[in-house]
Amino acid sequence: MGRSVEDGLPPVLPSLGVPRFVGRAAELHRLTAALARPPAAVLVEGEAGIGKSRLVSEALDEPGVAALRPLAAMCPPFREALTLGPVVDAAREARPDVAELALTPLAGVLRPLFPEWGQDLPPAPEALSDAGAARHRLFRALAELLDVMGVGVLVLEDVHWADEATLDFLLFLASRRSRRVSLVLTYRPEDVAPESALMRLISRPPAGTGYVRICLGALDVPQTAELMSSMLDGEHVSGTFASFLQERTDGVPLAIEESVRLLRDRADLVRRDGEWVRRTLADIAVPPTIRDAVAERASRLTPDAQRVLRAASVLAEPVGPAVLATVSGLPDNVAEGAVDAAVRSGLLGEDRAGRVSFRHALAARAVYDMTPAPDRRALHRGAGRSLRAMTPQPVARLAHHYREAGDTGRWREYAERTADLALASGDHRTAVGLLHELLTGSDPPAASMARWAQKMPVLAFTGLVGRGDLTRALRRVLDGEALAPHERAAVRTQLGRMLLHTGEYAAAAAELERALPDLAGEPFQAAWAMNTLGSPPSTLMSAGEHRRWLDRAADAARLPMTADQRLALVGDRATSLLDMGDDVGWAVAAELPDTATTPEGMMQLARGGLNIGNSAMRWGRYDEARALLTTGLARAGEHRYQRLHDMIRVTLVHLDWFTGAWDGLAERAAALAGVEEEPVVQLDALLITALLDRAVGGGGTADPGPAAVAEGGLGTVEERLRQVLDAGLRRGIVDLPLEPAAALARIRLAEGSAAEALELTDGPADVVARKNIWLWATEFAPVRTGALLAVERPDQARQFVADLAEGLSGRNLPAADAALETCRGVLAEGEGRSVEAAAAFGRATAAWQRLPRPYEALLAAERRAGCLLAAGDRDTGLAELARAQAGFTALGARTDAARMHDARRAAGAPVREVWRGGRRGYGDQLSPRELEVVRLMLTGLTNPAIARALSRSPKTIAAQLNSAMRKYGVTSRTALAVSLTQAGITPSAGHTTGAGSEL
Fold first, then answer.
1. pLDDT of residue 38
2. β-strands 356-358, 348-350 pairing
3. What is the pLDDT of residues 418-449, one digit of tens each?
4. Structure pTM?
5. DSSP state of 277
6. What 3-state class would DSSP assign to 879?
7. CB-based burial label for 92 (10 Å; 0-12, 13-18, 19+)
8. What pLDDT is stored for residue 684 in this prediction?
9. Could you tell me which residues come within 8 angstroms of residue 663 by beta carbon, excluding any fewer than 6 positions away?
10. Omega before 39 within 30 of 0, i.e. cis
11. Is the Cα torsion angle 859, 865, 868, 869 positive or negative in sign?
């Protein structure tokens, strides 16, 4: 016991014990109760020092939880992440060998992560080139390992520091249908990034799971007193003292503990009248932060113990005392005592395995920050030397320590090895990040650059690969003289792949052509480059030039290479031939087998389904296109080829636009338009949203259409079309601008701006003429013909149509043939030959219907009706207009249906006012619920804000606004607002546009 101050003797410092578990009984019960009903997902959140780890530790000591064989892991605050490092390290500690475990052949993929188990794991399976498939297979294998180890609870602490692969693995575990493992995760909410995968677990609990979220708060004054008393051998602590400390520490348990220890070290704790008190209020200064308290406490230790603390702060993870002593650099006869002193101080602690580390990351960070930079670098070098002696070497930690030590050479060595391990494990995202950092670092060796570039898995992820600093770095080394010819060819080829992957087709083709002279000894690489140069979208070469490259590639493909490589070349050749409108492409496509024996082969078949299906769609062979794309989608889904899956989905969206399958199409297209990391997917989806909105009611110039209203943020129809057009021109994807240019030209021609419409089609017409690929004229040919006639250039119009007919002669291109008949009708109509024009439009209508492409068929039928009326055949013309109106209405093309209605009325036909949607029970009047919505819209609120105000979903609000637009015969929010105001409908009272209106 301490001596009272009244004795007149120097006070005796109290002995301090480990604080008891205080104030968390309810939280402990919730945690253990959840784990008693597996599978459970328990999320423990709270600020640093609030007691998350202590709560979990107490739960793991409960007999019922311990019987579940929990596996505990901690995420270190390292910049370099080893693939699934926390879980792998914990499994390795828990199970030194796996010889007796009943593992399936799937476990062979774990070999890179557990090299020391090489004799006991099954053989490694063949590598997968698709990042999603490889990662999923790795997750399945690691989950199997946890299952056969009998792990019932996986505990992962400090998940806010977890690498992406670990977070994705947690999501995988949580979503397994046959899940056996419960999860306990601790994290600091303020350190979780909004885009982190952890947010999905936090915001969307897995179905069928005992989900518990525990938020730890501060201790109150009685709990603070109880915690303090537990450290002071159960002696009573004055209420005034406890209140004082609780106020100064905000009730954070770690801050309370550190303050008590510091006050003890200062001799500021005394006993008076049988209870512990502070000396005087005026004399005591409690540090404002835990960091300050730790810094002061550390400064009171011996220099040797401080050296141990600094070494532990640099290591930043539990290590054996011998490793800690080695890194500290102390002599053997001094190190043991220094380690003991650091542990006795309470700053360091020992785990069940006898490993030593800081008891809290905040304390470690405080010591690390106050360590002079030269000492830190020396300690990191010492950590590197010590960890290099381990088997297996912890390569990610070694990369971290050598980076911080400033040893660039060794950092590169271990960063590359970490990337290799990530690639071998299927963790392409980690590999991409590390390789990107290596490639863009300061003055890396040219030979290393060549090696790193070849390792970059460009098909894995777009975002990082597309950054300009990477391509600049590769071009910088290519511009030098240090590379051997084969290295230069490898770097150029890889750069070409990267540029292709990000949609920079023209730049990619230029790099590949420059690489060819040095690829003589690499038949597949050479053939692949030639095939790419033979791809029509990549450059402005003529079809003849493309064909010569394809033939050279076919010759190169006869040289030795793998079956999967040959399969890739066949698919690419078929696609390029079909892109040029060459029937030979179908014979080449027929060479592709129905299935493959390897994952790489299956991926190539999925690619074939995408590319050849897209070509079939462009030809107008829609049934065949759907069959190919549907098969490809199934393969991509089965093997988790995520990028291919998204590209096939957006191509099916495009096909549904053509074939009139418009139900739900706006939502599907808008969702794919948000896939930011896949620019080609995003642009194609954005194009469909614009085309669809214009057809179903978008204004085309100043207002968005209904799909944009529903999804928000897409911009007007014209803005979206212009965005796709500009992106295609900028990226050098020569066929991408054709369709948006045609759509914009139609808008301009309908507005009477024929010169602008013609200018929009000048570029596409030049591309088609230079490449001599007339299949590509399908979308813009009719509007260009009309624009030429509108600006009074009939000779050029006739020549354009003649060139189109000659370019399509002898080919079986159904969609292009339908466009040609439409052009003939436009030409005849413009020249006043109404009967001939009606006949041509009739043939065009039938041709479009055969595909089927109903929207274009109806537009042609409308033109035919006008020609019949002009020719004096009023009855047939009016009947055709009526059929067109009914067809547009059935399709959902409201703007076109209204135009047909007006045309029939203008021609003198008896017509009824068309019902424009909404609930028939209210006729053309707004329903009460619709009235609520439009009155809020008039205040300036957005759809989401209206949804919150009325407790409805945003989709319901969008549907009710669309219904109101139909009833008022308008196609935009702006026009609806004008009509409502003219009708005397006023904004909702109490809602006005202001700073919080989200506009």
1. 86
2. antiparallel
3. 988 888 776 777 888 888 889 888 788 888 88
4. 0.59
5. E
6. helix
7. middle
8. 93
9. none
10. yes
11. negative
